[in-house]
């Protein structure tokens, strides 16, 4: 073996084991006792988990007219420092641009910067995109995304959504949906502004949870009618989760995601007072994302949903905008605050601390939510998301007792604030390995730009036929 990792507790979604990991040519070559190799790593007192997979990121993206603060390079630095070794980013076609041209453009953008492995979901914006769905699997793209919100920009109508889910199924693609009723949100926003309600809290007040649950209900009904698979991104509310529960109980092939911000903040954070001169009342803009942050009962319902398996994936929706130079575009109009929050760096540690440590979320479930189920759904089964023979040796040596105080002063992403500033948590990666190579250890990076591989993904059907999940 090239490398053997000894004395750790290996965790997969289906169990834990005290075994050595033997690595050869970037792959896991053996799991067992008393393996020997040219190099040995001691993992005493640590967990060995599969590298995190964040399947919901917006790096190097123009969204709502603003360029995200993080490009692929800074986003990947943050990802690595947090134990994430693969991600899938959204590619938005420009109006009139084809899906294949969009994909080529994004592959070009990331290539020279990448530190970790990356894939792309394509966003469906117009009817002409349907013609290209049969070509996507050949390009290694097994998922597409539809927006039912963001009127007049990326929102599509119900008819195009229906046709997309129908054709995606036919061609082995998984449809993802941002489920909020964009038409009614648009009306509520205009009405609020006409009444001079301009501050960040009105972002939440104009996007009530009913507009999420109604939209999830619609999307799930389409999936049910068509017997097609559907993935609901960033479920934020108890009402939304109720729709997930109902659809799953009826046997719809539906999968749901939530993100750390919905588990750890509430709409009260939109009313925070800050310390920045002249912007004291605008601090809450840092927490503006869509769907918006909700109430404590929603948080509790989401934690319960994680435990019960109603929520299948925790990803981030990492979409970072600087506070001073970007969020302030909405100083006198909350609807102009760029929508998005960071998370790619903190996702794993937050779920570990607030989930595993504070709420007894089993380690197996942590691994399922952060790596194995994302890999399974998004066509990486057999490659990533598990520590098993033949899989890529993406191994994180996770120290359950590592103390961290999250701060803008120590994060690796490129952003002028940290959403979790001052959070004192326990747990984090000591060492991160991507395809058998140590890329991060004890706070130091050992990786060069261009290191990442394009994730050529297969159809979700492949996972259903061969997968380890039932
Ligand atoms: N919501 C956000 O907050 N940012 C990016 C996209 C989205 O749907
Ligand atoms: Zn979204
Ligand atoms: Zn309903
Ligand atoms: Zn998103």
UniProtKB/TrEMBL annotation:
Cofactor(s) listed in the protein's UniProt record: Zn(2+)
Keyword annotations: Hydrolase, Metal-binding
Sites of N6-carboxylysine modification: 145
Keyword Hydrolase part of the UniProt annotation: yes
GO molecular function, one term: metal ion binding
Record's comment on post-translational modification: Carbamylation allows a single lysine to coordinate two divalent metal cations.
EC primary class: hydrolase
Highest taxon in the source lineage: Bacteria
Record flagged with keyword Metal-binding: yes
EC number, as in UniProt: 3.5.2.2
Amidohydrolase-related domain mapped to chain residues: 47-439
Pfam families assigned to the protein according to its UniProt record, in alphabetical order: Amidohydro_1
This protein's GO CC annotations: cytosol
Signal peptide per UniProt: none
Family: Belongs to the metallo-dependent hydrolases superfamily. Hydantoinase/dihydropyrimidinase family.
Protein name, per record: Dihydroorotase
Organism ancestry: Bacteria, Pseudomonadati, Verrucomicrobiota, Methylacidiphilae, Methylacidiphilales
């Amino acid at each position: 073996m090239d490398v053997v990792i000894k004395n750790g507790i290996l965790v997969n979604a289906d169990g834990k084991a005290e075994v050595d990991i033997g690595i050869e040519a970037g792959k896991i070559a053996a799991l067992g006792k008393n393996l020997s190799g040219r190099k040995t790593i001691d993992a005493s007192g640590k967990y060995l988990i599969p590298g995190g997979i964040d399947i919901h990121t917006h790096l190097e993206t123009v969204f709502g007219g603003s360029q995200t603060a993080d490009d692929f390079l800074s986003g990947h630095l943050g990802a690595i420092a947090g134990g994430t070794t693969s991600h899938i980013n959204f590619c938005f076609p420009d109006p009139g641009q084809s899906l294949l041209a969009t994909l080529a453009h994004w592959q070009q953008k990331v290539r020279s910067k990448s530190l970790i492995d990356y894939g792309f979901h394509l966003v469906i914006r117009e009817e002409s995109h349907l013609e290209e769905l049969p070509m996507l699997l050949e390009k290694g793209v097994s998922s597409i995304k539809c927006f039912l919100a963001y009127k007049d920009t990326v929102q599509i109508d119900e008819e195009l959504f229906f046709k997309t889910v129908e054709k995606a199924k036919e061609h082995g693609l998984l449809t993802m949906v941002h489920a909020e009723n964009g038409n009614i949100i648009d009306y509520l926003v205009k009405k609020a502004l006409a009444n001079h309600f301009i501050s960040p809290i009105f972002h939440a007040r104009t996007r009530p949870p009913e507009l999420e649950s109604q939209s999830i209900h619609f999307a799930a009904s389409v999936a049910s009618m068509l017997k097609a698979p559907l993935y609901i991104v960033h479920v934020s509310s108890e009402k939304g989760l109720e729709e997930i529960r109902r659809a799953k109980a009826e046997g719809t092939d539906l999968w749901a995601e939530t993100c750390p911000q919905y588990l750890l903040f509430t709409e009260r954070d939109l009313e925070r007072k800050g310390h920045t001169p002249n912007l004291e009342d605008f601090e809450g803009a840092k927490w503006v994302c869509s769907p918006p942050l909700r109430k404590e009962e929603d948080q509790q319902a989401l934690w319960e949903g994680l435990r019960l398996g109603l929520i299948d994936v925790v990803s981030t929706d990492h979409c970072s905008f600087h506070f001073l130079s970007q969020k302030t575009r909405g100083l006198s109009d909350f609807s102009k605050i760029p929508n998005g929050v960071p998370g790619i760096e903190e996702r794993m540690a937050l779920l570990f601390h607030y989930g595993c440590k504070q709420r007894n979320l089993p380690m197996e479930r942590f691994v399922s939510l952060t790596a194995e189920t994302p890999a399974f759904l998004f066509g990486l089964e057999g490659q990533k998301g598990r520590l098993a023979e033949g899989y890529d040796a993406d191994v994180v040596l996770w120290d359950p007792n590592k103390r961290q105080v999250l701060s803008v002063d120590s994060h690796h992403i490129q952003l002028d604030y940290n959403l979790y500033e001052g959070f004192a948590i326990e747990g984090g990666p000591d060492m991160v390995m991507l395809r058998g190579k140590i890329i991060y250890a004890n706070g130091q990076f050992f990786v060069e730009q261009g290191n990442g591989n394009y994730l050529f993904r297969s159809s979700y059907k492949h996972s259903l036929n061969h997968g380890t999940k039932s």
